User: Fold this.
Amino acid sequence: MSKAIVNSDLKDVLPLLARGKVRDLYEIDAKTLLFVATDRISAYDVIMENPIPDKGILLTLLTTHWFRHLSSTIPTLRTHFLTLDLPSRIPEPLRPTLQNRSMQVRKLKVFPIEAIVRGYITGSAWKEYQTSGTVNGIEVPKGLRESEKFPNGPIYTPSTKAEIGDHDENIHPDQAIEILGPDYATRISTLALTLYTAAHTHALSRDLIIADTKFEFGLDEESDEIVLVDEVLTPDSSRFWSVEGYEVGKAQESFDKQFLRDWLVGKGLKGKDGVAMSEEVVVKTREKYVEAYERITGEKYAA
Ligand SMILES: Nc1ncnc2c1ncn2[C@@H]1O[C@H](COP(=O)(O)OP(=O)(O)OP(=O)(O)O)[C@@H](O)[C@H]1O
Ligand SMILES: [Mg+2]
Assistant:
């Protein structure tokens, strides 16, 4: 197991641009970021006090696997990935904890929506469907059961990207057109659906279902190309279900955070700040992140 980190501390070496829920973003130069995935974990929108060792490494290497796989399947795809190598400026003592949890990426203007694609009806989509028969205001076939695959193929259900502390809001694809303009909105929805379909096929070959996932895109202002950014197709940005346990007509176990969520609810700690996970929760949760990584990449994780 590697040394776990809750906060990276490179402020003396590189300017810290932002800390997200999971990542710390540093500026290497005007066009390049160091994208550091920490071992922070959040549940019900609250970050836990203690880390899940190796989580940031698993997310970074899994995202890298997907960038490679998707780029070879979809040759026109552009991603923000540059290298897993650390900038030479990082001093030796800091390098071991940063290696494999950091990537150098192109710094881009990120489009202000989350490009969510759903192949199966669950979560907020299932909730909305039960009351109105729609998903993000989109008419979908009647008579669907919980966790069922959308019979006419995956659907694009964008949300707004909320400011820190706010909640994202589901929107109809027409509202995404209003926010982004018709050209970018159409290119983004088409690309998101293409990426989901390619990823779903790959995951199924490893006995995993990707029920839904969230992509983020940036703009290369010189070439006007849409670029895939952020993390992709990790347990933090996607719902993975195992094929063995899949059963229509009920909620599926969340692949990664079920244990943590059940524990929080059982202890009455759901949504509370300042919670430290028990050792058992940490170990069990880590195992699920390792399992997702190993199933999807087909490689053993050697910590
Ligand atoms: N290539 C890129 N250039 C600039 N920003 C990026 C790039 N790729 C991803 N980002 C942004 O970096 C942040 C990643 O951090 P993290 O995943 O921890 O955030 P989050 O908790 O998902 O969201 P928030 O930013 O709301 O805290 C996101 O805000 C994302 O939009
Ligand atoms: Mg994120």
